[in-house]
Amino acid sequence: MADLAVEPAAPRVLARPDHPVSRGGMSPAVVKVMYRLQRAGYTAYLVGGAVRDLLLGGEPKDFDVATNARPQEIRRLFRNSRIIGRRFRLVHILFRGEVVEVATFRATPDAPEGPDDWEEAVAEAAENDAEPARGPAPPQVEHEVFGTPAEDAWRRDFTINGLFYDIADFSVIDYVGGLDDLEARLIRTIGDPERRFREDPVRMMRALEYGARLGFDLEPRTKAAIASCADDIVEASPARLSYELIEALRSGHAAPIVTAWTRAGLFERAFPGVGGNADATARALAELDRAVARGERPSDPALLGAFYLYPLYRELADLTAGGRRLDNVEMLNRIATMIEPAATNLRLANHTVHLLMQGLFTLTKMQRPAERGRQVLKLARQDYFPVAWTLYGVAGALGLAPADAHRAWSSAVERLHRNEDPVAAPADEGGERPRPRRRRRPRRRRRS
Ligand code: ATP
Ligand code: MG
Fold first, then answer.
1. Domain coordinates in residue numbering, the chain
2. Cα(268)–Cα(274) distance, rounded to whole angstroms?
3. Fold of the 189-271 domain
4. Class of 1-184 per CATH?
5. Which of 243, 306, 402, 436 has a CA that sits 20 to 30 A from residue 130's CA?
6. pTM for the full model?
7. What's the CA-to-centroid distance between 439 and ligand 2, angstroms?
8. Can you tell me the distance from the alpha carbon of 49 to that of 86, in angstroms, rounded to the nearest whole number?
9. Residue 412 belongs to what H/E stretch?
10. Could you tell me if the CB of 71 is within 6 A of ligand 1?
11. Smallest-distance ligand from the CA of 210
12. What separation in Å is there between the alpha carbon of 266 and the centre of ligand 2?
């Protein structure tokens, strides 16, 4: 809980000419939502990560709004809205195909969070086909306690996340020293770090995540508190931990985030038995980060596969040592054993486990160029093929998959996408590709 005793009496306010945050950088939907709240007589602030990212000149991932309107009042103002979660009373407003999250200002939450509540919320969010309500919402056992804007700033996690943008006069309002810390590029916990981490251990992971994502340092007391509270991470609810992991993997900064968690001793405690050697994992994750930077959006099973690429190829080498033929059943068994801790500890859905396992197994079938187009077609039709294909790209880049096979499979899949026979070699590629045993096939299509 934040130390309200040291709360400054008045916030620092930057008028519009003195900061770079403009409505042009926001989604039109969020601007409309704030204006409608304001016209109805309420205070409406843009809050959290969006203000931080706009001040840094970046592009926010999503836009959160805080207001003094109560959830029921918000609902009355927006027809397309619904209250999310029974206890945390966030309102989601569907506005032109986009979801804007609006929360009522809250006082510092001091009730311990109940994991069941959180899981309930995640399930509910999934049911509504919305993003799980993560964000400003450590679940509360007691009734919601609404608060002032100052209290709402102080109950947030880090100073750079506690800034407000006021739609009424376009000013930026800073109750917590976030502007100075943005300038200094520091992640500083609001209030006493140890107390805040014991209250919600997931904040430790978030601190390191922001540090890695933004390239900021952790302020020394925050850093020290992570060292002394690392053990507490096991108290966090598994659903929240796995949510944090998936978000990190998707972020495009997975390698530095997971590395920071590992160095702080949080990864192994939070996700026991998940993945193998940390450096190897970081290399695989860095490749997926590059894919995200190119604009790709690898699926969750593909992202999780990064933890198992090196172990997979190690097992494969072991099982095929001395030119032995691969025993598929044994290979599948070993993959199953390998991913079991992730399946259990991350509470993965059965379908995710299936895609991860078969996706990995498929890589063992791509050690040699495909001999027949049918083989490529058959594999490409499987639901797990996209997972395998993403991971095969990573394996190729890391030199895990044999280069000749990788080249051949890449051109086969490319040809498949162009609706051509995957294995028929065009004349200009003739000598390039090692071509095993060619069979004459009656239905071979000609290039025109
Ligand atoms: P992102 O760019 O990842 O969306 P964000 O800062 O917006 O970053 P969210 O998880 O969307 O992060 O949360 C929104 C805001 O809610 C945060 O900026 C922070 O102010 C507050 N918040 C989120 N999680 C916590 C927490 N565990 N404890 C206190 N405050 C939190
Ligand atoms: Mg956010």
1. 1-184, 189-271, 276-425
2. 8
3. Hydrophobic Seed Protein (1.10.110)
4. alpha beta
5. 306
6. 0.85
7. 56
8. 24
9. helix 403-417
10. no
11. 1
12. 23
